[in-house]
Amino acid sequence: MIEFGSSMVFISIRTDMAWYRLGKPSKQYSPWYDTVLKTARIAISIITLLKEQSRVSRLSFGDVIKRVSGFSQDNKSYISSDPLAVERYVVVHGQIILQLFAEFPDEKIRKCPFVAGLTSKLEARHHTKWLMKKKKVLPRSEPNLNPRAAMAPVVSKRKAMQATTTKLINKIWGEYYSNHLPEDSKVVIASEVKDDDEDAEVETVLLEGMQKPHSVSKQTKAFSDDGEIRWEGGPEGKTSSGLLLYKQAIIHGEVVSVGISVSVEVDELDELPDIYYVEFMFESKGGKKMCHGRIMQDGGCQTVLGNAANEREVFLTNECKDLGLQDVKQINIVTIQKTPWGHQHRKANIVADKIDRERAEERKMKGLPTEYYCKSLYWPERGAFFSLPFDTLGLGSGVCQSCKLQEAEEEKDVFKVNSSKSSFVLEGTEYSLNDYVYVSPFEFEEKIEQGTHKSGRNVGLKAYVICQVLEIIAKKETKQAEITSREIKVRRFFRPEDVSSEKAYCSDVHEVYYSDETCTISVQSIEGKCEVRKKIDVPEGSAPRIFHNVFFCELLYDPATGALKKLPSHIKVKYSSGTADAAARKKKGKCKEGDSISEPDLERKTSNEKRLATLDIFAGCGGLSEGLHQFGVSSTKWAIEYEEPAGNAFKANHPEALVFINNCNVILRAIMEKCGDRDDCRMWRSVTSRSSHAIVRAMSTLMP
């Protein structure tokens, strides 16, 4: 990028990380730099020339070339006295010149005849250059001077190896290709049938395409239209609002009880019936028989699993609703399964799943209704599946855990201020006096310049302003605290980028500066909490995730003069928690057994315990593993890399990891065999025959 003013020209290079303004170039870059600088000066001279005209349209492209060829030799924009040479130079470097014209604020200059003429010259030159390439063709008798011309293309001697995978992954991708690339899918499947007969049944299924969502109404027990709805047994208690609770009801002759799953028809004709898990049943004040249920979703149609889901598995959700028992149409056979979590239960779970699948196939062959099962809670707002809350599920007590969660979310929207006006609650977070907070930068729009979008850069993004809460001010007294009736007096802490761009470039991103500037802001502008500590309380080399919202302060900044200096002794900054770590660090080597460890050390220890143990496949030199490790996400225990130089580099970068320099298909097959999962491994027979010795060697290197 080229920036210019009345007498200065700057050349900048943009990368994904930063902008670099070039100063004096080194020797090897000087020719490139000088050419770009000269072209920029020529463009500036042409712009100046056009601005001097009473009418910009008076000078065409040819007129400008003649004027430039008339420059004296002592002019920095001098090219040549020959107009043809000047035109050739301007057209060759036309892209740089057009860029400067495009950024010029005067629209008449941007759309002048010179720009139109230069653009057409560039297009014409492009076509001429294209034809010139085709103009000369070397005869076959003439030797080719390219030293690589006689070399044959490099072809790998290794035969391509299909990936080792599991039955589930093979099924998912097989269904994908059978739908999107049916011809390729048939070829792959046909070749595989020849190699491995035991997979013939699986491959036949893949040709059928994606599985259609099952219809609940065809595989559930439907009610007859005869009979009435009545309670079975007396009331078992009352809800918090005084409504009578019941455990069972008779609906058209069928028994419906708390803790089972039922289907409720929806209004849309194309929609499948909704499945609800009955939490409790009650009678409304009007005598209407009701039940409260949590919706259960089909894994393939209604969750992110898609075709990876089991057709018999449904998932409990936190969506709940009061339903009239007259709307209940069917009873679903859904088994609530309690599956133990952890690697030590993995094999037992695999055996149990196998037995369950065999039983389901047997029921299907006999024409019996499908038995569904539920063993996970689907929580899309948190982006995860959780184990079922068995201790609060289907108690029939009139209390629903999903309702409690919804009430807690609604409670977060309530703004509260305590009676002493020393703290307030905003969006579920409590803020007290002297707490440090993030404030929207637009609250200080009069004090910071507004950003713009220039040359592909979005310089309008501003970091949150860090402030300290000093006082809670009531604009008007009301019986109930309202967010619009309160303001917060805060002290502003400045970031390095608020001082200067040079300071921001050489400063720590966690550093802030104390100031005497105070102001009053609205409560709505607060974006969250953070901490400001002494620098000694923020250890170097910490994982970014641990101290993501922690800053340190050592200097005082004066916005009026722009001066930075050490904090005077009379200024007592009320830092966040963590100041006790300094004393603990001073006693290093002198503390007694049983002394508490520092907060950063404790946070780091906790973070290490929560890291995921990962296997890095196609590991390279370990850049991805290093990034995940630095951010506290995972710790790489194993790695697979095919190329020996890259594998050795990974060992040097991650000495704590066990690195396998081998084909990943071989290692994965060896790992699955070592873990007893050979039946679940999908490795092509041709690969197995070629790599059997390598698998044996790999298994001997694995840990017991």
UniProtKB/TrEMBL annotation:
Residues 586-605 are annotated as: Disordered. Residues 254-389, 429-568 form the BAH domain. One of its GO terms (cellular component) is nucleus. PROSITE patterns: BAH (PS51038). Pfam families: BAH, DNA_methylase, DNMT1-RFD. Residues 591-605 have a biased composition (Basic and acidic residues). It is found in: Nucleus. Its main location: nucleus. GO terms for molecular function: chromatin binding; DNA (cytosine-5-)-methyltransferase activity; DNA binding. The keyword Methyltransferase applies. SMART domains: BAH (SM00439). This is DNA (cytosine-5-)-methyltransferase.
